[in-house]
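thought: user wants a sequence for this fold. calling inverse folding tool.
action: design(structure=
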C-alpha cells in the first residue's frame, strides 16, 4: 500500500490517528459521497447542515488523499487570469466562476471560523514570484488583470520581494493579500468532525467497488461487500480516481507533487527565511512552492519522482533548490518527505460532470485545490439537496472526455518537466 500519507509532516505531528469504521450493513441515505477529501467532506458538511442524510465512503481514512498531505498553501484563483474566464464563458457564467475561485480563501476561512476548526490558519497572503526576467511581463499582466477586478493585490519589485522572502533570486512578483496557509490534515479532520456533528455518517476503509442504479436508487457496494442506497451520489476521488466510474481515471493525469519539510529552523534563521510568512509559488512550468509553517519548518514542494516516495533523498533537486535560495538551510536538515497525486486535466481547469440521473463528479484542481475544493462544497451540497441545478454550479458542467492515448500522457508530462528543468539550469 501507498504509505506516503504517513510520512507527511502533518501526520507526524499527530501521534494518534483518528479511525472511522468501515461501512458494515446495508444502509440508506439521501446522499452518498465517495471520497473523503476536502471536496467530499465540505459537500457532506453543507448537505447535512441543510437537513439531508449523508454518508461519506472513503477508501482509506478522511484526509488520506491529497487533502491531508498537500503544501498547505491557500492561493486564490485558477491557472488563467480572471478576464480569460469572462471572455471564454461570457459575463454571467464567467463572473460566477471568478467570484468563487478568487474568493475561495475567504469562503474557506468562513467555514473554519463557523465550525471552529483548529488548523493553524494564517492570512499573511500569497506571493506569485517571477523566476526569470522573461516571466515578469506575464506575472505583471496577471496582477493588473486582478486589480481591474478590484482584487487586493500589490506589485512587489525585486527589493520589496527580497525583504519578504529573505533572498533576492526573484525578479519581482505580486502579493495577494487574501492568501495564506494552514495545516491541511487538521483541516480535513476538522471538516470530517464538523460533518459528523451535523449528522453525516463517515466510513473509512470503505472503497466503493461497484455502483449501479436499481431503478429508484444508486446502490454502492464496498470492498467488504456492504451496501449503501442513495438517491444522489457525488464522486470526489480527484487524483486518486480508480476504475469505479468508467472513463473517469482516463480523464485526468495523476501527477505526483513532492514535498520536503525541514527541521524546525534555529532561532537565527526564524526571521531570515520567509520573514513575511507568506506562501509563495514560483512562475514556470515546474512550479516550486513553499512557506514556513506555524512550527517554523520550511515546507517546500515541487516535482519529484512520478511514484510514491517517502525519502528526502529522492527529492534532492527540491532540496538543492531550497539551499540555493538560503544556503544556511544546509545545516538545518530535512525532517521528512512525502508526495501525493495532483489531478491534472488537459485544459488545466477543474471539471464538473453530471454523469447520470443524480450522479455527479468534480475533479481537476491542478494543484490549487485546498481553498477551492472546500469552497465548492457549498454549491455541490445545494445541488445534492435539490436547491440548485447542475448549470448553477460555478464550474460549468461538461461531458466527460477521456484523454486520447491516456496511458502515454504521463510520459509527456515527464518529458515537459525534464525539458523545463534543463532550460532552468541553463538560466542560472
Ligand atoms: C503533494 C501535494 C501538494 C499540494 N499542495 C497544494 C497547495 O499547497 N495548495 C493547494 O491549493 N493545493 C495543493 N494541492 C492540491 C490539493 O491538495 C487538492 O486539490 C485537494 O486536496 C483535492 O481534494 P479532493 O477532496 O478533491 O481529493 P483528495 O483529497 O485526493 O481525496 C480523494 C479521496 O478519494 C478516495 N477514493 C478514491 N477512490 C475511492 C473509492 N473507489 N471509494 C472510496 N474512496 C475513494 C481516496 O482515498 C482519497 O482520499 C496539493 C496536492 C498534493 C498531492
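)
observation: tool returned 428 residues.
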Amino acid at each position: 500500500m501507498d504509505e506516503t500519507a504517513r510520512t507527511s509532516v502533518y501526520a507526524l505531528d499527530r501521534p494518534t490517528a483518528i479511525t472511522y469504521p468501515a461501512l458494515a450493513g446495508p444502509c440508506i441515505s439521501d446522499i452518498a459521497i465517495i471520497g473523503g477529501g476536502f471536496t467530499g467532506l465540505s459537500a457532506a458538511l453543507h448537505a447535512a447542515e441543510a437537513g439531508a442524510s449523508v454518508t461519506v465512503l472513503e477508501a482509506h481514512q478522511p484526509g488520506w488523499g491529497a487533502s491531508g498531505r498537500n503544501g498547505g498553501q491557500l492561493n486564490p484563483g485558477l491557472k488563467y487570469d480572471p478576464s480569460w474566464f469572462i471572455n471564454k464563458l461570457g459575463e454571467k457564467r464567467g463572473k460566477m466562476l471568478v467570484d468563487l475561485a478568487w474568493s475561495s480563501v475567504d469562503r474557506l476561512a468562513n467555514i473554519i471560523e463557523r465550525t471552529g476548526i483548529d488548523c493553524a490558519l494564517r492570512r499573511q497572503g500569497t506571493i506569485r514570484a517571477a523566476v526569470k526576467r522573461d516571466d515578469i511581463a506575464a506575472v505583471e499582466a496577471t496582477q493588473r488583470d486582478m486589480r481591474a477586478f478590484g482584487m487586493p493585490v500589490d506589485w512587489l519589485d525585486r527589493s520589496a520581494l527580497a525583504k519578504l522572502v529573505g533572498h533576492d533570486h526573484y525578479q519581482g512578483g505580486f502579493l495577494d493579500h487574501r492568501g495564506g496557509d494552514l495545516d491541511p490534515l487538521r483541516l480535513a479532520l476538522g471538516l470530517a468532525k464538523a460533518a459528523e456533528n451535523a449528522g453525516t455518517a463517515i466510513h473509512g476503509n470503505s472503497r466503493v467497488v461497484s455502483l449501479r442504479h436499481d431503478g429508484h436508487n444508486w446502490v454502492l457496494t464496498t470492498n467488504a461487500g456492504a451496501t449503501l442506497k442513495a438517491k444522489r451520489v457525488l464522486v470526489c476521488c480527484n487524483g486518486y480516481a480508480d476504475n469505479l466510474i468508467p472513463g473517469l481515471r482516463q480523464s485526468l493525469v495523476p501527477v505526483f507533487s513532492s514535498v520536503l519539510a525541514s527541521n524546525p529552523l534555529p532561532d537565527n534563521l526564524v526571521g531570515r527565511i520567509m520573514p513575511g510568512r507568506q506562501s509563495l509559488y514560483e512562475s514556470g512550468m515546474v512550479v516550486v512552492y513553499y512557506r514556513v509553517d506555524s512550527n517554523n519548518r520550511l515546507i517546500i514542494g515541487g516535482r519529484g519522482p512520478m511514484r510514491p516516495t517517502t525519502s528526502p533523498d529522492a527529492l534532492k533537486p527540491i532540496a538543492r533548490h531550497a539551499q540555493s535560495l538560503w544556503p544556511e538551510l544546509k545545516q538545518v536538515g530535512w525532517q521528512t518527505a512525502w508526495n501525493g497525486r495532483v489531478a491534472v486535466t488537459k485544459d488545466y481547469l477543474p471539471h464538473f460532470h453530471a454523469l447520470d440521473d443524480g450522479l455527479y463528479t468534480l475533479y481537476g484542481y491542478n494543484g490549487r485545490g485546498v481553498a477551492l475544493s472546500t469552497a465548492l462544497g457549498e454549491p455541490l451540497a445545494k445541488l445534492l439537496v435539490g436547491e440548485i441545478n447542475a448549470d448553477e454550479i460555478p464550474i460549468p458542467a461538461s461531458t466527460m472526455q477521456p484523454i486520447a492515448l491516456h496511458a502515454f500522457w504521463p510520459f509527456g508530462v515527464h518529458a515537459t518537466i525534464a525539458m523545463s528543468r534543463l532550460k532552468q539550469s541553463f538560466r542560472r
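thought: summarizing for user.
answer: Here is the designed sequence. The longest strand covers residues 334-344.
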